[in-house]
Amino acid sequence: MGKARIGDVAALAGVSVATVSNVLNRPEKVTPPLVDRVRAAIDELQYVPHMPARQLRSGRSATIGISVLNAANPFFGEIVSAAELAAVGRDLSVMVGSSHESPTSQDKYLDVFEQFRFAGIIVTPVSQDLERLRRLHARGIPVVLVDQEDPTRVLPSVSGDHLAGGRLGGEHLVAAGCTRVTFVAGPLAVPQIAERLQGCEEAVGDHAGVELTVHSGPGMDIDLGRVAGEEILRLPASRRPDGVFAANDMQAIGIMQAFLAAGLRVPEDVRMLGYDDIAFAAVAAVPLTSIRQPSREIGRTAATLLMDPAAAQDVPAARVRYTPELVVRESTAGAGVARVGSPLPAG
Amino acid sequence: MGKARIGDVAALAGVSVATVSNVLNRPEKVTPPLVDRVRAAIDELQYVPHMPARQLRSGRSATIGISVLNAANPFFGEIVSAAELAAVGRDLSVMVGSSHESPTSQDKYLDVFEQFRFAGIIVTPVSQDLERLRRLHARGIPVVLVDQEDPTRVLPSVSGDHLAGGRLGGEHLVAAGCTRVTFVAGPLAVPQIAERLQGCEEAVGDHAGVELTVHSGPGMDIDLGRVAGEEILRLPASRRPDGVFAANDMQAIGIMQAFLAAGLRVPEDVRMLGYDDIAFAAVAAVPLTSIRQPSREIGRTAATLLMDPAAAQDVPAARVRYTPELVVRESTAGAGVARVGSPLPAG
């Protein structure tokens, strides 16, 4: 039991070892009846293909590991899908873990990626501590950052310009006439969030009479957005914001849900702005103004960089930075703001 | 280079082998200065922890593999998040792959899970061919199906009752007065889609004068929903449906986007119904009626079953089946239908 070797399988199936190997690794290259025969033999002998041994010979497994903040956020979902599409062309699989902004979780995923000798790692770091990633890179394991950059230019990166995006959003709310702006952040240890906030602060700081408050929280999903929205609703009306800039669209949608349920009107009572421009933003109850990041392009480029051996050697490392784009929709429309970019009638 | 062993790391760091092992596997149990010292030694010696060897000793790695149709669909995203939450309590990591309804992709993920000796597998199968999964289970690898059942009761499963859900949706559209219903399916090889369609057919078939057409497509995301919506819009007005039942909410949202952009009114011109009740359904441009499945409960229960050694031995296997719930919102409201369950004002 469990002691069968690949040669035993080949002998029982009456095929070569190479054919068994093909059935295990490239079944599409083997005719279906042969696949069935080999699988029956594998089954009968309870043969377990020994990846670790094969791996040590070839050095690396045919798998890319991705660690993102939250794969259920369509922004990261699109990045992952695009990376999958690029990887499948090179016969690589993609495995994804969600760190949920936790350094411990990220470390666990990196443990798995490293110990199984994955072919490469794409990661949205949970903090500015990139030491472990740089060490992996130094050992020859390809690493590409997404949604964040390495200030030392050791690690290649593909990301949006979060400072510019934060500025765009802040300027837009001020231009729309907001005087009490609340930036609803997730965990401020996440550098891209801190940068978006900094950009917003710079934009708002240029305007006397506009007040900026920060509402930080433990995470950035719809549920936590709803909680943030309810907290804002409990403020006395005089202290409530007339403009809300959420650090991502997931939060913005949760906040909007809380506001609308309480009878607040968007944009009449409060203008709202998200970040990422996920597909749901355009079809939200009130179509959501957002800062667009090209998620698919980011995922595709990250995978391409990862699989390009030349890119891994470049010093300084490749740094692909996308300029974000303001997409104005109903949620901030009104006095002083022309509504463009929305294919939808007003909600 | 690369020949260092764990004892060399321990000697250089001046700690025990057990401490090095803790730093590798349970760093939270080691003080930060010690972690730093051990990591510096690992770095200096370019030591690569040898998971395969350790794994063969312990039998299984501390990782659960999940293969779902599309991790970027919040329905599966929630299942995965809940499974992660349940697994982290047992010190297990969760790695996710998206099969995108492709048997080849699913097979590749199963190869990875099997070859790396993952502790268990949660899978939304792409088809009714469960033979390989039953073989893995027979070899002692825990396997739990989500969103689909094993008719032979060999594999445990956690899913909704798709036939009942399809019936609920079909009956609802008929009760709302629809006479030309289009069921927008994804790939009909996916059993849960075929079952939802069958339920809808049963419900509509009971009513003379109601016509049901099926619109099938290669996938079930927002983009493909938009494509399906545009195809429906190209039909002559007399052949256009007055009720659309989409096989999941992602598709429904894409279809709605196409309809609204073309000036069609929902629900006045066409009533729309999705499936899953993802969080976005309630905050869609027109809040979307949907068939609710308890995604978090499904993910949590699947992980719990997977980690329960007793459940793995049960014959017949555990089968947890949730009764779906119709959540009526604006997208199907109007004559004959009371609108309930929506916290939002009309879009």
From TrEMBL, chains A, B:
Q: What is the lineage of its organism?
A: Bacteria, Bacillati, Actinomycetota, Actinomycetes, Micrococcales
Give yes or no: UniProt keyword Transcription: yes
Question: InterPro entries in the record, alphabetically?
Answer: HTH_LacI (IPR000843), LacI/GalR-like_sensor (IPR046335), Lambda_DNA-bd_dom_sf (IPR010982), Peripla_BP_I (IPR028082)
Keyword Isomerase on entry: no
Q: What is the official name of this protein in its record?
A: LacI family DNA-binding transcriptional regulator
Any matching Pfam family: LacI
Q: Which GO terms describe its molecular function?
A: DNA-binding transcription factor activity; transcription cis-regulatory region binding
Give all residue intervals belonging to the HTH lacI-type domain: 4-58
Keywords, A to Z, come to:
DNA-binding, Transcription, Transcription regulation
